[in-house]
Structure formats: structure tokens, C-alpha cells
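Q: Protein A?
A:
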Amino acid sequence: MISRLTGLVTDKNPPELVLDVNGVGYEVFAPMSTYCTLPAEPSEKVSLLIHTVVREDAFLLYGFSTAQERQLFRQLLKINGVGAKLALAILSGMSVNEFAQCVEAENATALVKLPGVGKKTAERLLIEMRDKVPSMGEVSSVGGIQPSLVMPMTSNMEPAQQALEALGYKAKEAEKMLKAVETEGLSTEEWIRSALQAVARL
């Protein structure tokens, strides 16, 4: 199985990206928490921790900037009813620390705000993740990627809305989320992250 990839990000279409590794382009799915750490310049190499999913009809790669993200993703996949798409949406909507806090506080309300998470799923997450949430410490980054890095890119709301829809939000809901941010000059990734954070605060 592939555990780590280091290369150049040649294409971004959240939550997907293409990582060029010595001339071979790997399509990788990544949560927005990882997306927001990607360098603005495509000439700068990045390293992503990889979780590989092998199916009869597909060979899928999921990339993460920290070991904690990948660990939580893997733990979420073990829960009945939680697939890779939902696990990706959960990690896009809140950080590992925020998820751990939700579980510790048994805060189902915050989880239900995430796309694809209904009341029953939220309750299942709280029960089954109680003893599985990774121990929290400082989030270590991979390959020099800093979790707080902000990319000074120019973008608009349309690709951000498409990405939110890909994460499971309905079109009108995604549009409403982005309009609530009302901030110009953000990159696509920053639009998405800001919209997700705004929903979490409601």
C-alpha cells in the first residue's frame, strides 16, 4: 500500500488534487484542512500521508498533511455507515481537535451540521469514537507543510461552491454558506474553509 507521496501539486479541484511524483500524476482526495496547507506555488514540493482504498472498481488515494488527520480518517472508516466520502466531509468541517472536543462533550449538535451526518450517525460517532479519538497534542505537519499556512491566491466563489457540493452540501445550502462569509480576495480553499467554520459556529 502507498503510505506517503512527495511531489508537485499540478491540479486542484477540491476535494481532489493531482500530485506529480517524478512524472506520474496521482489523483488524491484530501480534506479541506489539508488543502489549506498546500503551497501557493506549484514548484514547491509537498509530502502527503496516504491512506489507500482498494475496491474492485477503483484504486483510491486519500492524502493528509498530519498523522492525526489520517489516524482519525482511518478510525472513522471503521464505524458502521461511515464511508470515505463522509469521513472526508467530517475532516473538512472540523479539525481533529474540534472533533475530539465534540466527542468528549458529547456534542451531537455540532456533528449534525456536517453534510451527511444525521442524528443517528452523530450519536453513533459519539458512542463508538469515545475510546478511539487519538490523543491530542500539537499537530505535527508532514514535509514542511504548516497547518496555518494561508495561500495568497485569487479565486472566486464558484469553484468553492462546487467543492462544497462535492463534500455533500446541497447547492442552495452551499451558496448560502459562502454568502455568509462575504469576504473578497480569498483562495478557493480559504472560501471553503471559512464557510465550513462559519457553519460550525452557528
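Q: Protein B?
A:
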Amino acid sequence: MLKKSLELLRLEAAETGSHTLRRSLGPFNLIAIGVGVIIGAGLFSLTGIAAAEHTGPAVTLSFIVAAIGCAFSALCYAEFASMVPVAGSAYTYSYATMGELFAWIIGWDLVLEYSVGAATVAISWSQYLVKFLSKYGLHLPPQLVMSPWETATLADGSTVSGWVNVPAILVVLAITAIIIRGTQGSAWFNAVVVALKVLVVLVFIALGWQYIDPANYHPYIPQNTGTFGEFGWSGILRGAGLVFFVFIGFDIVATMAQEAKNPQRNMPIGIIGSLLVCTVLFVLFGYVMTGLANYKEFKDSAAPVAIAIEKTPYGWLSTAIIGAILIGYTSVILVDLLGQSRVFFSMSRDGLLPRVFSQVHPRFQTPHKSNLLLGAFISLFAGLVPIKVVGEMCSIGTLLAFVMVCVGVLIMRKKEPDAPRAFRTPWVPVVPILGIITCLVMMLSLPGDTWIRLVVWLAIGLVIYFSYGKKHSKLAQGLTVDPTVEPAGNQVA
């Protein structure tokens, strides 16, 4: 239950040298990083699944519910990011407020969140690639674009099972190679593809609006089937829980604090700005998509946008948008991989994970070994697991992290009321409490098997912590993060 003091965290933030990350990100870069991951799989893939199985046209309401929960959490994230500009996001914040064990749980949870987030997008990227190539007469073997748990019906009526999703594996490995070369270069690459994705969303909304069929909105909230989460208001809640994971964009912005210029000012701008921009686009996009095609047509599809576009006369738009989505998806994978490696970087520097995860490349100043290991793991995950499973796992991991950050703000306001805060969460304790309640309600609305996977993942993490992390914790040994610095026993709370 040892805690890091704010003084120690600020000391870490002030460190310089070849063993630290390079500060190269301004407010525009941070907003672009947030928008880059928010506009991704949730918008272009899981929106269709949520509409077909849980909400019907009322998927727009699910986005609003999710955005409200995000707004409460985003305000709490912004306060912490302005106080503690260190890599690690919710992991670091929990270390300062609730102690090492809770920090480990959240850090391990974030690893799950970012891993399955990247895998979800990679799987959807693969499905859009199949559609894109088919327009030019190129057909990939179905066994090589599906996980072993999925099947497909061929033109002759026969059914085949998947072997491994090869395109999903290859795109993760390619993006891993890009981020190893440096955060600034990755940020510029991300900014370009983010601009392209926003343009795609705006074009889809503008051109698709005039071909909306009002009949597709009736009933706007389909009647519940008698099972919780299958349409009706419970379906809207479950849909919100499913699409919630797309909002981890501002969470990932918080992991980049140690690479931000003037983080006390720029971190709140990046966190809140990216959330505001995307919420408006999400609602409009969901409205147009469910207006173009009946929600039942999206069932079992990770590429619902392609289905919706087929309802318009713009054949060229379908090809252009699918191509742009393919390019845009790469930024989501990129930001997820960046976020995960930075959490591992922080946990490793604290001694809770092996040192290999915090070793920095002498030229690029990136945690290259961590990137390689995590890229290999996530690529296999993307190649072997269905999209619906990874989407739900990412949502519950995100929600748990948001709950802990909201709790952390309440604790820090009690214990450190006079600590300097460049940004203060308004209406405390109301906002953090509402954030906790909203996130817990959406967590409870998710399927039971998703909870089982979360518990199993956290159990594996606790085994690793008590067998390795607890014994090697630098804080428990009275050390600062840098072992060359004098022992910091007086900085242990």
C-alpha cells in the first residue's frame, strides 16, 4: 500500500537525459492523438454490431450515454494530468492516491485495454481490406482473414472455418516498426491520417444525409426481447458499454504526459478537446448510418459503413471511404500501441516489471524492446480472436480505469487539497461521483462472460505482481525511479 508522493512524481517528470522520453508533443499533437484513436473501430465497426444486437437506430443514444460518462472521467483525468505530468496515465494516478497494489491492478488493466483495443481495430482493418481488394477482383483466401473461431459461407454455399487473420497480424507489426523510430515522427504520421479520417466522416455525413430513409428509424428504440441488453432501454445501456471503449482516446493522451511540451497546460487541452470534437461526430455519424440501412443488416459485420454506403448512388464514395478508413485505422493501432508501451515503461521503471520494458533506444529515445514484445503479442491476439470478444473486453477494462481515476480525484482532494493544480475538476465531489456511477452502470450492463475474462486477466496479473513486482518494487526498496539517484525514503508516503 506504499504510495508515491507528488514530490517524487514531479521529480520523475523533471528528469532529462538519454534514459528518458523526449518532450516533443504540443496541444495540436495531443488532440490529434486523442481524435486519432477515438475515431476508429468503435465508429466504423462496433457501431453496427451495437445497433444490430442491442440498440437499433437508438445507437445514437448509446453514444450520448457513453459520452456523458466520459465527460465526467475526462475532467478527472485532466486534473491529474495537470498535477502529475508523467507517463502512465491512470496507473501513475493510482500509485499516488491508492498505493502500489491498486496501481498494479490498474496498470495491468490498462495493458488489457490497449492490447484488445489495438487488436479490435486490426481485425476490422482486415475486414475492410478484404472489401477494398474485392472491388478490384482480388479475393484473399477466407481461411487467412478470420480467426479459428469464425466461419464464412462461400458463393457455392459451402462453409469454411478460419485459420488465422494474416492481414491483422501484418498491420500491427508494421505500425510497431513506425513507433519504434520515434514519437514525433509517429505524431506527424498520426496527424495526417487523422485529418483524412475526419474528412471521411464529414463526407459520409454530408452525402449520406440526403439518402436517409425515414422508415429505418421506426421503431427508433426496438422493443426489448425479454432479455436484458437486447433492445429497449437496457439495450441502449449495453450498447453504451460496448461502444464506450472508443473513448479511450483521451485516456491514451494522458499516457503521453512525459512526452508533452508544457504538460500542465497542454494535457487538459488534449484530453477535453479530443472528447468534444469526437462526440459530436459520433452522434451525427450513427444517425446517418442507421438511416441509410436498416439496423438488422449490420448483424455480424465489422464493416457496417460499407453496407450503409451501398444504399447511396456514390459507387466511387464506397471505394474512397473504405480506402481512407484503411489508412485511418492505422492511426488507431498506432496510438493504442503507443499508450500500452508507455504504461509498461512506467511500470518497469518502478521495478514492477522487468527492466527490458523501460530500456530506451539510444537514438530514437523510445522503449523499443517493449514495443517489439508487445507488438508480437498483440499481433497474435488480433490474428486468433474474434472482434466481438475483444471489443467487449476493451470496454470493461476502460470503464474500470475510469472508475479508479474518479476515485483518485476524491482521495487527492482530501489528502492534498492545497497541491498546485493547473486544471481543477469542477463541482467536486459531484462530477467524480457521477463518473463512478455512470461507469459502474455500464460495466454491470456488459455480458457475464466479459466479467469472467476480466477477473481471469486480473488474477494472472496479481500472480505476476506477488511473484515478481512486489519483490522488485523500487519504492518498497526506498529508491527513486532512477537507481543512480540517492534513496528517497522520505518521499514514500
